[in-house]
């Protein structure tokens, strides 16, 4: 007798409730293996041959026969996983901890001449440290369970200052901003480059297709100097064709113009050369005590809050842009910054219909 006929006869001996349970498990069982086995049985009952099931990619033909034999001998109970009493799990907390430590490090820290991890190499390294050998598939499931992602590392430059000196300076700046006196203003200042040739970044694409970005070819640049108010989040900016001391001085005059009643404007900024040039010192002397500069430690951009604003600007305006002229690009940049000032936070700017 053919295996399909045996499955049908065994199916006919089931109660209506048992049949309904098998059909439900073939669609909604949380265990993928159980769901696959129930699908095999339901398909055989509906007249699908084992060869057709295998060609459809559900499982191999030999597995179809194994599932059918278990169903004929044991009924719906044969669909369950019988390995539940196969001993304790190999994976323990020590293994998971060693895996997470390895992921946070580099293969070179373990003596391998590689720059990135593979699942096979992770399994080998953790096995050497714990004595527990698992497959790459198990490593994949564990990484997914711990929400480990494959991302793009962030390049940084180490601060040359010792940690105590760096932390002391950062605390001083933070204390100054949190305890502003009446009539004082604090801003974060930095410059950003705007390129007519777009920065290429990730974007959603259809399968088998790659989006294209038409570039003007000859690059042009504009430079913005911006100041982010530490209390209100409002952005003040000026533009120039060159990143010189004049750009920074122009921003300082704009801040004085926007805060005419402020007794002192505290400016938090990095150590770029235009921020402490001779021309800048002369301009600060002309402003008197109304502007006070607070320099961050070298290579500490994460402590300058306006850096996040420039990142949002690149993500929403300059990356993969399709502007064919600098005037059009700067119009979109200004529209984004003005919209952010109105809303007080990031907002999507609607394009004007031509």
The helicity comes to 40-55%
- Low-pLDDT runs of 5+ residues are none
Broad structural category: alpha/beta
SSE string, helices as H and strands as E: HHHHHHHHHEEEHEHEHH
N- to C-terminal distance: 73 Å
Q: Work out the number of β strands.
A: 5
Strand order of the largest sheet: 3-2-1-4-5
How big is the Rg? 32 Å
Give the name of the CATH superfamily of the largest domain.
Answer: Ribonuclease H-like superfamily/Ribonuclease H
Q: What is the correct CATH architecture of the largest domain?
A: 2-Layer Sandwich
**Could you give a short account of the major beta sheet?**
5 strands, mixed
Shape: elongated
Would you tell me the overall average pLDDT?
90
Strand fraction = 5-15%
Can you tell me the CATH topology of the largest domain?
Answer: Nucleotidyltransferase, domain 5
Whole-number tally of structural domains? 3
Number of alpha- plus pi-helical segments = 13
The CATH class of the largest domain is: Alpha Beta
Blueprint (SSEs and pairs):
Blueprint: H1 3-12, H2 16-28, H3 32-45, H4 50-55, H5 61-74, H6 93-104, H7 119-130, H8 136-145, H9 163-178, E1 184-195, E2 221-229, E3 235-240, H10 245-258, E4 264-269, H11 278-287, E5 291-295, H12 306-318, H13 326-343
Parallel strand pairs: 1-4, 4-5
Antiparallel strand pairs: 1-2, 2-3
Helix pairs in contact: 1-5, 2-3, 3-5, 6-7, 7-8, 12-13
């Amino acid at each position: 007798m053919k295996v399909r006929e045996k499955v049908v006869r065994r199916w006919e001996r089931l109660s209506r409730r048992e049949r309904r349970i098998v059909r439900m498990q073939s669609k909604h069982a949380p265990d993928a293996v159980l769901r696959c086995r129930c699908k095999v049985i339901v398909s055989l009952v509906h007249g699908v041959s084992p060869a057709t099931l295998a060609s459809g990619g559900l499982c191999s033909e030999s597995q179809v026969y194994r599932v059918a034999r278990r169903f004929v001998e044991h009924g719906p109970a044969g669909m369950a996983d019988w390995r539940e009493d196969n001993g304790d799990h190999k994976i323990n907390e020590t293994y998971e901890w060693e895996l997470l430590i390895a992921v946070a490090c580099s293969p070179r820290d373990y003596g391998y001449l590689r720059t990135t991890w593979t699942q096979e190499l992770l399994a080998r390294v953790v096995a050497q440290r714990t004595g527990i050998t698992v497959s790459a598939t198990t490593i994949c499931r564990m990484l997914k369970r711990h929400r480990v992602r494959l991302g793009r590392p962030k390049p940084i430059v180490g601060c040359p200052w010792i940690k105590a000196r760096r932390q002391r300076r950062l605390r001083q700046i933070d204390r100054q901003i949190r305890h502003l006196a009446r009539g004082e203003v604090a801003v974060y200042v930095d410059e950003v480059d705007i390129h007519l040739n777009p920065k290429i970044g990730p974007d959603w694409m259809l399968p088998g297709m790659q989006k294209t970005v038409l570039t003007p070819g000859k690059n042009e640049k504009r430079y913005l100097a911006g100041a982010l108010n530490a209390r209100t989040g409002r952005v003040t900016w000026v533009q120039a064709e060159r990143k010189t001391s004049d750009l920074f001085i122009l921003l300082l005059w704009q801040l004085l113009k926007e805060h005419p009643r402020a007794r002192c404007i505290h400016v938090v900024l990095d150590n770029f050369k235009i921020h402490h040039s001779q021309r800048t010192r002369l301009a600060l002397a002309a402003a008197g005590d109304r502007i006070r500069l607070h320099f961050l430690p070298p290579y500490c951009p994460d402590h300058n809050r306006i850096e996040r604003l420039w990142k949002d600007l690149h993500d929403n305006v300059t990356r993969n842009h399709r502007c064919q002229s600098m005037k059009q690009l700067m119009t979109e940049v200004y529209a984004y910054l003005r919209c952010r000032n109105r809303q007080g936070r990031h907002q999507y700017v609607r394009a004007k219909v031509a």
